């Protein structure tokens, strides 16, 4: 990686203040939810393809749901943070053409790779949920999200038994001069198949705004803000993070954040 630019340094400092507290909180959640054994279970489930649906439901039935709120609690304006407009002419051109040429790839350790246009994603069964987004920088915001459950896409793509994680690749580079700094994130199959894990294309009843990740962003509702990747273009199934960014499973994880951002 190239030397960090000053603006990145500033962001790191600001976030560093919260890192210690966050580490403790995430650690206790991990212990109390026993997330690792659930993940092992999900992987085993995927190994027996015939009983996939039944077994998945059994696993999901034991999974805690994030709190959902009433429509009256939706914030008038959903805040935005991090990238608010991906740099470079490619993304600007996508906005100008209303994402007509944008595609979502689902690939890696899958038997049936997908490449989907935005209308194709929007034609899939959708889930709507009003949830609270919690950013480690100390703010929260309630919004209504609508999108396809990631489980739907993963079932279509036929996840291979050796897959352990879902990696989300984003269109925005954190350093506009360095292609290696594209935002990315990852979750295990437990969170990937969770009922509230959706790829959202609508916020508060309107097409997802550019500042909140147009045309598609993930909502992984039991995790913190930095685990909600925006500007998605590729969902990749992997068995390890080796060779991805700094190898820690996410852009902010590579700067020292915890990989498990459970709340
Ligand atoms: N692609 C991308 N996704 C991202 C970020 C980003 O900078 N780029 N920032 C993260 C952080 S730290 C937060 S708090 C949320 C902010 O989402 P919002 O802009 O919709 O509020 O997006 C997360 N996902
Ligand atoms: Mo955040």
Q: Any idea of the CATH class?
A: Alpha Beta
Largest sheet: 5 strands, mixed
Percentage of residues assigned to helices? 25-40%
How would you state the average pLDDT, rounded?
84
Structural class: alpha+beta
Task: Name the poorly predicted regions.
Answer: 1-51
Q: Count the domains.
A: 1
Q: What oligomeric assembly is this protein in?
A: single chain
Q: DSSP strand (E) fraction? A: 15-25%
With strands numbered from the N-terminus, the spatial order across the biggest sheet is 2-1-10-5-6
Which small-molecule ligands are present, each listed once?
Answer: the ligand Nc1nc2c(c(=O)[nH]1)N[C@H]1C(S)=C(S)[C@@H](COP(=O)(O)O)O[C@H]1N2, molybdenum atom
Could you state the CATH homologous superfamily? Oxidoreductase, molybdopterin-binding domain
Just name the CATH architecture: Alpha-Beta Complex
What's the Cα radius of gyration?
18 Å
Number of helices: 8
Description:
30% of the residues lie in helices and 24% in strands. The protein has 263 residues and is α+β, with helices and mostly antiparallel strands. The protein has a single domain (66-255), classed as Oxidoreductase, molybdopterin-binding domain (Sulfite Oxidase, Chain A, domain 2), CATH 3.90.420. The chain is globular, with a radius of gyration of 18 Å. The two termini are 31 Å apart. The model is unreliable at 1-51 (pLDDT under 50). The structure holds the ligand Nc1nc2c(c(=O)[nH]1)N[C@H]1C(S)=C(S)[C@@H](COP(=O)(O)O)O[C@H]1N2 and molybdenum atom. Molybdenum atom binds at residues 81, 135-137, 225-226.
